[in-house]
TrEMBL record, chain B:
UniProt biased composition (Basic and acidic residues): 1-14
Domain of life where this protein originates: Bacteria
One Pfam family of this chain: Fer2
Protein name as catalogued: Oxidoreductase
Location of region: Disordered: 1-22
Length: 342, 191
């Protein structure tokens, strides 16, 4: 591990200027991903600017919804009464991620900025365009089970690993960012980027910009949200594919409003806008859902290693919407016996 | 309370003149303050084991995957391998070695006694982490925190076997003593 200096500024503004002025500096949040990358040699900063103790750690009800400080720990956010009742899909996404210990440590902003778990990105002995631009992509010809199927490029087929980011994307969250010129607001859908020729760039944030909060609008749709995650074991694993879904029906049982986002399919959380459009105004039965999923996958690129994600996406999307049709949210992995949707 | 100051070893390597940044921190470990000067790269786990001499938390994977380094940090279960010691200056840490309070008979915390009663270990390497994680988990469930398998996010927590398994998924046991661990935690939960 490269020697590094450590500082914990007293204010967010000081933290921003400390990182802004030093290309070798990085923000340190909960550290669950960055500290691992220091050990692996994936990340080699010369200076860490610790923001994890800044008092940006409250969940506040606002006129429009809720404002979540960047340092709110994943466990606290998942368990917060406001989120559990108003945005159950956010709580579900958080609870589906990591372990109890890691959720106590990981922060809201840090969760969004965690790096891909592509095995080649984390293995410094192999070529990886994201870690070392121009070195090549080992995943294209190598172990491809976790590869992206939407929006990938010849340079990179990595997927974004966050569950929270997928749910925030579905529920139209806005990220509050502090830079040297003050604050700006970035819709979740615009925070992460597709790889193109520059997979080393993962967000629209510039060096030294700090996520200080995430805002979620309160909507009837958000109250009827859930999250379904598929993985290789029952707990404590990253998603193969995941689905954040929210649904309201009209009096005829047709879709009044719907939000769908997928994880495990792309370099960023994937808002399934085509599938949403295909379902809006229709009764969300199994064949309509399957057709909507196919519509979203029209430009997807599957290979032998990722073909399994097609039926998995169909099944997980059907499961998520069925849960919402069967009751408010519902039990992960089981049959809901809760009250009706309307 | 006892107070321990420690002189740090010389980090100067004969092969390099590169400056290695260090920082002075205080950790309260099992009720005792430890003043340590650490290389900024030192993990909390290495600070506990190699500098403060507390070998209760174990280094299993050192990548946050096994849970054997779990302690209670400011009252919550927390990994120590994915944490830089400098970022936890002033923290209060309780390891499995310091779990038992003055009221506990035979110097064992009730959860530790339950692990013995239920044969919740074989080689014992994961046990300090398992025990700390269980204590933290019971506290979380006690204040109503839901889990991935909680059917109703807004209902009271019922610590079923399924709930215990899910909530303990961050602690691996390669001996496979899960049945005993489950029994120990079930008893600790009052079931």
């Amino acid at each position: 591990m490269r020697p590094l200096t450590y500082a914990a500024p007293a204010t967010a503004a000081e933290a921003v200027s400390a990182v802004r002025g030093d290309p070798q500096a990085r923000f340190l949040g909960g550290g669950t991903n960055l500290v691992d990358h220091l050990k692996l040699g994936v990340s080699t900063p010369g200076r860490l600017v610790d923001i994890s103790r800044l008092p940006l750690d409250t969940v506040e009800q606002t006129e429009a919804g809720v404002r979540i400080g960047t340092n709110v720990r994943n466990s606290d956010l998942a368990a917060h009464p406001l989120l559990r009742s108003g945005w159950p899909g956010i709580s579900r996404a958080l609870l589906a991620g990591a372990s109890g210990q890691i959720r106590n440590q990981a922060t809201t902003g840090g969760n969004l900025l965690q790096r891909t778990r592509c095995v080649y990105f984390q293995d410094v002995t192999t070529p990886c365009n994201k870690r070392e631009p121009g070195s090549g992509c080992s995943a294209l010809e190598g172990y491809g089970r976790y590869n992206a199927v939407l929006g990938a490029s010849e340079a990179c087929v990595a997927t974004h690993p966050s569950d929270l980011a997928v749910a925030l994307t579905a529920l139209d969250a806005v990220v509050v960012v502090l830079g040297s010129d003050g604050e700006r607001r970035v819709p979740m859908a615009d925070l992460h980027t597709l790889p193109g020729h520059h997979p080393e760039i993962e967000t629209t944030l510039s060096h030294g910009e700090l996520i200080t909060a995430v805002e979620l609008p309160a909507t009837p749709l958000a109250r009827r949200s859930t999250y379904v995650k598929t993985r290789d074991r029952a707990s404590y694993a990253f998603a193969l594919v995941s689905v954040a879904a929210a649904l309201t029906l009209d009096d005829d049982g047709a879709v009044a409003d719907i939000a769908l986002a997928w994880g495990g399919v792309a370099h960023k959380p994937w808002r399934a806008a085509r599938a949403e459009a295909a379902l809006r105004g229709r009764r969300p039965d199994e064949s309509a859902i399957a057709a909507a999923v196919e519509e979203e996958l029209r430009e997807a690129a599957f290979g032998p290693d990722t073909e399994y994600k097609r039926p998995l996406l169909r099944g997980a999307t059907t499961e998520a919407l069925s849960r919402l049709l069967g009751g408010l949210d519902g039990k992960p992995g089981g049959t809901s016996e809760q009250e009706g949707a309307r | 309370m006892e107070h321990v100051a420690e002189h740090h070893p010389d980090h100067e390597s004969p092969h390099t003149s590169q400056h290695v940044p260090e920082q002075r921190i205080t950790l309260r470990i099992d009720g005792t303050d430890h003043e340590l000067t650490v290389d900024t790269r030192t993990t909390l786990l290495d600070a506990l084991r190699e500098r403060a001499g507390n070998t209760s938390p174990k280094k299993g994977c050192d990548h946050g995957q096994c849970g054997s380094c779990t302690v209670l940090l400011d009252g919550r279960r927390h990994l120590t391998c994915l944490a830089l010691a400098v970022a936890y200056d002033g923290a209060e840490i309780v390891t499995a070695a310091g779990l038992a309070g003055p009221a506990d008979e035979g110097d064992l915390h009730p959860v530790q006694q339950a692990f013995i009663t239920h044969d919740g270990f074989q080689c014992g390497y994961c046990t300090p982490g398992q025990v700390c994680s269980a204590v933290g988990m019971l506290e979380e469930a006690g204040r109503g925190a839901p889990s991935h398998v909680t059917a109703d996010l807004e209902a009271d927590v019922d610590l079923t076997d399924e709930e215990i398994r899910e909530r303990m998924s961050g602690n691996l046991c390669r001996c496979g003593a899960y049945a005993g661990i489950l029994g120990a935690i079930r008893e600790s939960a009052g079931r």
